[in-house]
Amino acid sequence: MHQLNDFETRAALDVELAEKVADLLSSAIKAKGSASIAVSGGSTPKGFFEALSQKDLPWRKVTVTLADERWVNIDSNDSNTRLVHENLLVNKAKDAKFFHLKQGEELCAETLADLNVGAENALLPLDVLILGMGEDGHTASLFPCSQEIEQALALDNSDALMKVVPTTAPHDRITFTYATLLKSANTFLHISSSSKKAVLEQALSDSNILEMPIRAFLQHPDVNVQVYWAE
Q1: Radius of gyration of the chain (CA)
Q2: Which residues contact 209 (CB under 8 A, 6 or more apart)?
């Protein structure tokens, strides 16, 4: 299920989402001594990253990661890791830990095995998950065009992370699986523009998750996805 939160401006959305996420991270730290958050890439979250980076939190107790990543070098313009380091892990948030999804040169079985162990030990289950959404209804790197989509969406997939090769987008990807993301304590979908609002409406109009993977989150009866949207 989902709840739509409309904002008149993207700036207003960024401020409100940052406030909400900061409160959730603070509560997690008070409850168990640490907190974890997975964010998404692209241009949409830059303002949110900036607002969150200014929050007064015990950032040394927060571990940040990505919901997915392109398998590119960190200095690439396509690197979401670079995006997060330049826009979120600055200001007061510079002391946060970062769990790298892109480690090493080759995205092989051995690399995935090591990353899965590391993720389980360092940050799972996630306290906060911020998803994005593509025009095709993909979220994280759960691409409807990929051969791996059924495995990526399988509820019995015990792997936290897996390799995905989209056919409609560049670069191999590493992504958290649906089964793992589903266990997040708090899930948000952060989108903007009228075109993404139309994609959201399309996603809510049918239940075929293989066609639009974001449906698996929006229509799950036990997950309340907080949708934050602004034009």
Answers
A1: 16
A2: 153, 215, 216, 219
Torsion of CA 87, 88, 91, 93, to 10 degrees: -170
Q: Residue for token digits 């900036």?
A: 50
Tell me, what's the pLDDT at 202?
Answer: 98
Residue spans of the chain under pLDDT 50? none
What's the pLDDT score for residue 27? 98
Per-residue model confidence (pLDDT) at position 113: 96
Q: What is the pLDDT of residues 206-217, one digit of tens each?
A: 999 999 999 999
Q: In order of start, what are the domains of the chain with their CATH numbers?
A: 2-199 (3.40.50.1360)
- DSSP 3-state assignment of 76? coil
DSSP H helices in the chain = 10-32, 46-53, 80-87, 109-122, 149-153, 178-181, 194-204, 215-218
3-state helix, strand, coil in the chain (%, to 5): 35, 20, 45
Contacts of 27 (CB under 8 A, 6+ apart): none
**Distance from chain centroid for Cα 169:** 18
